[in-house]
Amino acid sequence: MRRYGMGIALLAALGLAAFLVTRPPAEAPPPVAAATATAADTPRVAPVHGYRIVKTFPHDRSAFTQGLVYLDGVFYESTGLYEQSTLRKVAIETGEVLQRIDLPDDYFGEGLVDWETTLVQLTWTSGVAFVYDRTSFRKLAQHTYTGEGWGLTRTDTHLVMSDGTPTIRMLEPKTFAVTSRVQVHDENGPISALNELEMVKGTLFANVWGTDRIAMIDLASGRITGWLDLTGLLPASERARVDVVNGIAYDAAGDRLFVTGKWWPYVYQIEITGS
Which candidate among 18, 66, 71, 251 keeps its CA 20 to 30 Å from the CA of 152? Predict the structure, then answer.
């Protein structure tokens, strides 16, 4: 999502400052507790990773990117905003839009994932997910869900959905029935505003809306195992005309990680560097 210019205010409202500042130290435990404490009693602080730009690709500046998928040498992209939402097939090297359909004006496009021969696209507040034939973009079906739709990705057996809260839903792909939920947290507590999602080598990556960070999440436990800090990725000269970081795609066969943002002029292929 979200509407342009709301990032800073909503960041505070959602309580995301917890991982941007250091909490005051806790009071010292009584002597007996200190004597019996072990390393397991201390929450592990998730490391912060940097990045290296491998390659830069052009990206349509009019695309308010909500979901990004790499598949068979192209990107599939969901874009948002009312009266502007689309589903697209995009050439990686040139940024050319090869195929496109527009959503009805009263739908705000959100997360996107491939499943078998289809594409599944969330909408923000309508509680509807559209299912399309991947080749023709013909709408085949639609599913309903409660709450908001933000990000969408998949494992081998389930769809994985975020809704703006710390809760990640595991969905049965054919029916959209919720099979389980996991609460995402770091050492300081729950993390909200999980947006665009992507599975990368068994780890769930999630843009945290309103920040330049991607959370790296153990999907079984919900624990954040690391942060990818994308600060400075887009040149400062371009920042005034764009919205937030959003859009993650992974090419498993080529081991390539792509990231972009809303109205960004580029898609970046990056490598993750050490903390």
Answer: 18
Residue 116 neighbours by CB distance under 10 Å: 7
Give phi and psi for 13, each to the nearest 5.
-65, -30
Distance CA 137, CA 126 (A): 20
Per-residue tokens: 56: 């830069």
Nearest CA to 87 out of 241, 254, 74, 58 is that of: 74
Residue 149: which of 195, 215, 209, 202 has the closest Cα?
A: 195
Q: Report how far residue 67's alpha carbon sits from residue 9's, in angstroms, rounded to the nearest whole number.
A: 23
CA–CA gap between residue 45 and residue 33 (Å, rounded): 21
pLDDT tens for 169-179 read 999 999 999 99
Identity (one letter) of the amino acid at 145? Y
Task: Please write the tens of the pLDDT for every residue from 20-53.
Answer: 333 233 333 333 333 333 444 456 899 999 999 9
Task: Report all structural domains of the chain as residue ranges with CATH numbers, in order of start.
Answer: 7-273 (2.40.128.630)
> For residue 5, which of 249, 229, 200, 240 has the smallest C-alpha distance?
240
From the number of C-beta atoms within 10 Å of its C-beta (0-12, 13-18, 19+), residue 88 rates as buried
**Alpha-carbon distance 200 to 255, whole Å?**
9
